[in-house]
């Protein structure tokens, strides 16, 4: 995942960057985020607007993989929305039931929208999380690759 | 998005339970005025939503209940954000309606069917004031002899429209009247005489 | 049917629950199972409970298994009951299984397909010999080998057939799907509704039905076009944001079952698909679901459709194990009044029959 957005105008770029860090925070545990925050500049004070609260998202599939949508089943999701003193609103929706993860992700979402804080928070929190997630994915991909069948055809089987 | 969103219930479960109790009491004792007190902190919905009307919407509506309201974009965004309710443009499609101005005609709202009369709309009407003791004389289920309710700020011709609504029983809409943090109800079974 | 209000038995029930708790714990000299251990070491049981409970949450499913003493249907029931306490925030964007991070992907129709045959963590080539080494706690196994992963994409097999025009296309649609958890089942049920019911249906029931289509109860000539298992991202578009965000990953298993179709007045002979998609690593369930999905399409494809697996009402009314459990197990409830009337009726009939025999 790249933090740089390639969209031409500023509004989609901002939302693409935001989409990216929200996705990374959603996959990070509260403990991982908290330990990285120890080395980051302190987060601003916030007030809760909504939540943190746990609910459900209905996951959908497509019939045949690419046809009309159908409801596969639900997953638990925790969301939180907060506001900073300057009025910036941060949102988080994270799979699972960890209210602490959702709240800290919402605060980070708000703080990351502040140009003055963005670079240092990306470097201290988001990029290390992204690297850890990419490493986990790469390890699974490498183990899968080791189970890929290398066929060799025997002469008698012609 | 900055600035425009304000908080919903401070204690979503407890506040919704308190409000639900008030609505239940109002519906089961038509014409008795309930006060929505003790929310922590008090609800501060976007204007022109009143505290009681906003609390009722937060309590009763959710993603499965289409809502129609005439309270403007800020109120719509607030409700969508906190209750997750879909906002509809056609009054007939709504399960709950909030009118802070002149309401749509009662006969144009979802009336339910003879098989499923509960699938009718509930109209939440913001009025200027609600006082017990004089005004309309109310009778019907939930009222031992008669209740008296004075409602200030109702649209012209409301009493006649309510007679029409009663005539559609078991179908027909239910009405919640809200003024500030006060609310009273007229279920579809309540008869109204102008006192 | 009539039930009689019965009072009493509270002390007996309390004592039964206390005994149940003790049985659940087993010998207290042994260490207690943790929910994390169940999640990690009985992962496929957790997957099954999430699929049949229709609620993806590993921690809750593991807890349900612990509480249910390993009774997986009871555990799915607990999970279904819990989910009713939660509000629904949103529906997701449809999962893009084409973009799955693959852990397993096999095809029985093409040996050499782009991306290759990836076995993943499978039981398939084990010898089904009990491994007594597992009976003694030992060292963790050595790490699995790793190999350089190609960045090559893994196109779906159905796409390969579609390029030749040999695969019936799915109609593109973004219509909001019907939802069993909101509206009761009604017939005829559209395919999206059927797939929802099958995805949460009982694995054993679907397995038996799928098997029946192979044995002649239904007109099936299936091939596993592809099975893939791995992680897919879940996306939602919260209205307050106005753009889609990822909220996490799900492990799912997908099966594309390729079936011959002789053609009809409006369609040329081609292949059609049966489709299976299930939470977790659940290959048997995904395959059974795909077989039954295809069987249920028989009528709309103009095929003769009189086998059990081809009957919508038979399959959809009976595939849910929580519903089935409820109705079967309700027979345990007091039917004292019902049965009293049966007794009297039988006594009368018997008396009449004996009298007539004597005459």
Explain this structure to me?
The complex is a heterotrimer of chains A (158), B (195) and C (359). With 158 residues, chain A is of the alpha+beta class. Helices cover 45% and strands 25% of the residues of chain A. Chain A has helices at residues 10-26, 30-37, 99-112, 115-146; strands spanning 46-62, 69-84, 89-95. Chain A is globular and about 75 Å long. Chain B is α/β, with parallel strands linked by helices. Chain B has one domain: 3-Layer(aba) Sandwich (Rossmann fold). Chain B has helices at 12-28, 51-60, 73-83, 158-167; strands at residues 34-35, 67-69, 96-99, 122-126, 129-139, 147-152, 174-179, 182-186, 191-194. The N and C termini of chain B lie far apart (51 Å). The radius of gyration of chain C is 25 Å and the shape is globular. A 4-stranded antiparallel β-sheet of chain C has the order 3-4-5-6. Chain C has 359 residues and is an alpha+beta fold. Chain C has helices at residues 10-25, 35-41, 43-53, 58-67, 72-83, 157-163, 191-199, 203-214, 283-296, 312-318, 321-329, 336-358; strands spanning 55-56, 88-94, 101-106, 222-236, 245-261, 270-279. Helix content of chain C is 38%, strand content 16%. Chains in contact: A-B, A-C, B-C. Chains A and C meet through helix 1, strand 1, strand 2, strand 3 and helix 4 of A and strand 1, strand 2, strand 3, helix 7 and strand 4 of C. Chain A: Keywords: Lyase. Chain A: This is Phosphonate C-P lyase system protein PhnG. Chain A: One of its GO terms (biological process) is organic phosphonate transport. Chain A: It holds the Pfam family PhnG.
